[in-house]
Amino acid sequence: MEAKDNAKKKLKLKVSAIKEGTVIDHIPAKNLFKVINILGLDKIENQITFGTNLDSHKLGAKAIIKVSDVFFEDMEINKIALIAPHAKLNIIKDYEVVEKKIVETPDKITGIVKCFNPKCITNNEKITTCFKVIGKTPIALKCKYCEKITTEEQIRMI
Amino acid sequence: MAMKKDLLSITDFSKEEYLRILELAAEFEENPNQELLKGKVVASLFFEPSTRTRLSFETAISRLGGRIIGFADPDSSSSTKGETLHDTIKMVSNYADLIVMRHPLEGAARYAAEVSDVPVINAGDGANQHPTQTLLDMYSILKTQGTLDNINIFMVGDLKYGRTVHSLLQAMSEFENPIFNFIAPPNLKMPPGYLHHLQEKGIRYFEHEEFTDIISAADIIYMTRVQKERFADPIEYEKVKDVYILNNEMLKNTKPNMRILHPLPRVNEISTDVDANEKAYYFEQARNGIFAREAIISHVMNLK
Ligand SMILES: [Zn+2]
């Protein structure tokens, strides 16, 4: 118990608090940069702090992102569900957590993911991919074009 | 403007639409020459050669009085000069009233339909869909059995890669009480996704590895070719290559109403001694393709 408290304290020291904005926690460490990419955090000028390779019982190594003055739309944040299905969001106002959110896998995925089928038209011409989510745990995506199913292990980001 | 109608995948159509098309096909069989496409231009774009399908479509278009533009193989098309499918379709949809297309890449027809302002009919997109084949197969079953309900269908050969059997399975599972029997070598069995689809709908199916006298229960035997290229190990192919061949002797105890279908071209999977048997239906089936395609064109273009 004491060890756990210490670990929590350490974590707090590693990633500093923000006044207003969003904290995204429980991101698998290996997917941190993909999350940054998908949310377009590499293209904004807000203050962002992140920590990675933090200990997590659930994920092994996790990452956390704190973005100042940014509040995501559900549709936007759900895009990361494919690579960070257990992500939790804390909405911060004046240093206080005012709302907690979890990500939800959307029913449709547009862009983001490549179709695994090399003979799919989307891999041969400049076309935005589009998938119907036919399974959520594990993820299974049915391509609107070639009708083939991309499984969780086959998922590659664009 | 009303939403345009395309035929891209067999699952795009409802059971009511299947029945409407089959009804129209019967009308066209009765009276194949109807000037419904008079003054219209149909683009026949074959990005991959398929003489059989192209001739069937072009005959259907001609019998409807339409004019045809297009190309029969990719070498004569602009795609070899590096033009995108997007640009080819954009251009052609400004010229023609309907596009019929065959393409080696999967999903090409659905993409073309998004780009095109005129209806698109998929005449085959790689291993994905060939919906007009499925409708002509259904028309053949309806004609020979008088109904699409309570049909016992045996599918034989390459059930893993054969798109015609997959689409026919999907379409027939919309009707009452079908029974499916699958006869295939272990490496070419019906994929689990399709079996799952049948389970979900509570449809009975049986899997077999060889032909036996079980075919005496069949209403329809749908033959496909077992291709050598599908086997990683040539010895495996040698083992099964003669197992999935239908000959006249085997038809002895089959039902009088039973008919043999095959999407053609045949190689050796139906021996030629079957051809004279009245149960051989594959050449009539190909002829039915003309009427089914006239019906499909009329349906997507609202000609009737
Ligand atoms: Zn695809």
Provide a descriptive summary of the structure in words.
The complex is a heterodimer of chains A (158) and B (304). Chain A has 158 residues and is α+β, with helices and mostly antiparallel strands. Chain A folds into 2 domains: 2-102, Aspartate carbamoyltransferase regulatory subunit, N-terminal domain (Alpha-Beta Plaits, 2-Layer Sandwich), CATH 3.30.70.140; 108-157, Aspartate carbamoyltransferase regulatory subunit, C-terminal domain (SH3 type barrels, Roll), CATH 2.30.30.20. Chain A has 3 helices and 11 strands, in the order H-E-H-E-E-H-E-E-E-E-E-E-E-E. A 5-stranded antiparallel sheet of chain A has the order 2-3-1-4-5, with helices on one face. Chain A has a 4-stranded antiparallel sheet with strand order 6-8-9-10, with no helix packed on it. In chain A, a hairpin with a 2-residue loop joins strand 8 (130-136) and strand 9. The N and C termini of chain A lie far apart (42 Å). The mean pLDDT of chain A is 87. By secondary structure, chain B is α/β, with parallel strands linked by helices. Chain B folds into 2 domains: 32-129, Rossmann fold (3-Layer(aba) Sandwich), CATH 3.40.50; 132-286, Aspartate/ornithine carbamoyltransferase (Rossmann fold). Chain B has helices at 15-30, 51-63, 85-95, 108-115, 131-145, 163-172, 192-200, 234-240, 282-300; strands at 41-46, 67-71, 98-103, 120-125, 152-156, 179-183, 204-208, 220-223, 259-261. In chain B, the strands form 2 sheets. In chain B, strands 7-6-5-8-9 form a 5-stranded parallel sheet, covered by helices on one side. A 4-stranded parallel sheet of chain B has the order 2-1-3-4, sandwiched between helices. In chain B, strand 8 (220-223), helix 8 and strand 9 (259-261) form a beta-alpha-beta unit. In chain B, 47% of the residues are buried. The mean pLDDT of chain B is 94. The interface between A and B is medium-sized, with 16 and 18 residues. The structure holds zinc ion.
